[in-house]
Amino acid sequence: MRSLFRTVDRADFRDALALAAAVGVVGASYGTLAAAAGVPPAITLGMSVVVLAGGSQFLVVAVVAAGGSPVAAVLGGLLLNARHLPFGLAMSGIIADRWPGKLLGAHILIDEVVAFSRARGSGERARVAYWTCGALLATFWFLGTLVGMLAGAAVPDPSVFGVDAAFPAALLALVLPALARADARRVGLTAAVLALLATPVLPPGLPVLVGLLGLLVAGRPVREATS
Amino acid sequence: MNWPAVLALAAGTYLLRLTGIVLRDRIAVPARVERYLDLGATALLVALVATAALTDGDGFAGWARPGGVAVGALLAWRRMPFVLVVVLAAATTATLRQLGVP
Questions:
Q1: Of B1, B20, B36, the CB nearest to A73
Q2: Most buried residue, A7, A49, A199, B54, by CB count within 10 Å?
């Protein structure tokens, strides 16, 4: 693993660090909200280590704050995280060749990490990017949570910094190269429209999965231009 | 929230992550299906972008956030550095909010 990280492209590391910094800010807001909702500190911090999926952690805090049951929180969180299964199908070859790597790499299968790695193809650079980005995001998520819990009310609402715009913008920048292909553009656009239409009527997590129906317009494979 | 619930969420999430990875190894995937897996990841990512940029809960997120994302999109399209995309998208949204845009 050490030799893997020695091959990190410096620009890739810088980009991953930018993403991780934004993750840290959101982690701080998660820590603050959890403390305000009365979630025990060990559980708040523990979730950032063993769950490591921001959306579902925020959902748990919201359910707890609203007086909902832990069962509802777990089911809602799992529904939100269901998209990780198709991501795993697509990323398997990039993450690792052997078991220990696959078992560890599965834990850092995060939306941003998937996009970050895919923007770098499917070779060695994509693999190094996956692990670098995953390790940085997991670390900053943990540290952000810790800061949020300790600083409490002193942490300003992250919407003041516009961090909520940083994530979709970053994901879009990362997925843009893939959209150069006509079939990917068609599928992506349909996925976006369907997910948006589904958002008001379906529980969190499902609208994004509905986006998979965009595959219906995939059509025939685009013949790669050969020169 | 208690520890059994946290561990259930953690185990379930981890299994969702691992299942896709392991399934792919276990099944011989024809090239045609491989293309769908690849396009599927793109579909999910674009759906995430759209919902994260435009919605909050089950309603519209307001104009400040999509405004920032639009600036980020423009910069990304013009092949500006990734760090700039992230920072200026956030800064635009923050500024719009300062100006009272919801």
A1: B1
A2: A199
Token pair 């280590």 is at which residue? A49
pLDDT in tens, B41-71: 999 999 999 999 999 988 999 999 999 999 9
Residue A96 region by backbone torsions, left for phi larger than 0, else alpha for psi between -120 and 50, else beta: beta
pLDDT in tens, B67-102: 999 999 999 999 999 999 999 999 999 999 999 999
Clarify whether residues B67 and B33 are in a common domain.
Answer: no
Q: Which residues in chain A are contacts of B65 at CB distance < 8 A?
A: 162, 164-165, 168
Evaluate if residue A7 carries a pLDDT over 80.
Answer: no
- When scoring A64, A179, A199, A222 by the number of chain B Cβ atoms within 10 A, the one with the most, hence best to mutate, is A199
Domain ranges of chain A: 2-163, 181-227
Q: How far is B62 from chain A (nearest CA, A)?
A: 11
| Range of the structural domain that residue B12 is part of | 1-47
Give the Cα separation of B61 and B76 in Å (integer).
22
Asked if residue A1 has pLDDT above 70, the reply is: no
Same domain, B43 and B2: yes
What's the domain count of chain B? 2
Residues B7 and B32 in one domain: yes
Could A165 and B42 be called an inter-chain contact, meaning their C-beta atoms sit closer than 8 Å? no
* A&B contacts, CB < 8 Å: 295
Tokens (6 digits) for B80:
């500006």
Task: Count Cβ atoms below 10 Å from residue B7 Cβ, excluding itself.
Answer: 15
Q: Is residue B31 part of a domain?
A: yes
Q: What percent of chain A has pLDDT over 90?
A: 85
Are B43 and B10 contained in the same domain?
A: yes
Answer whether residue B56 is part of any domain. no
CB contact set of A139 (below 8 Å; sequence gap of 6+): A20
Residue B52 included in any domain: no
Amino acid A227: pLDDT: 41
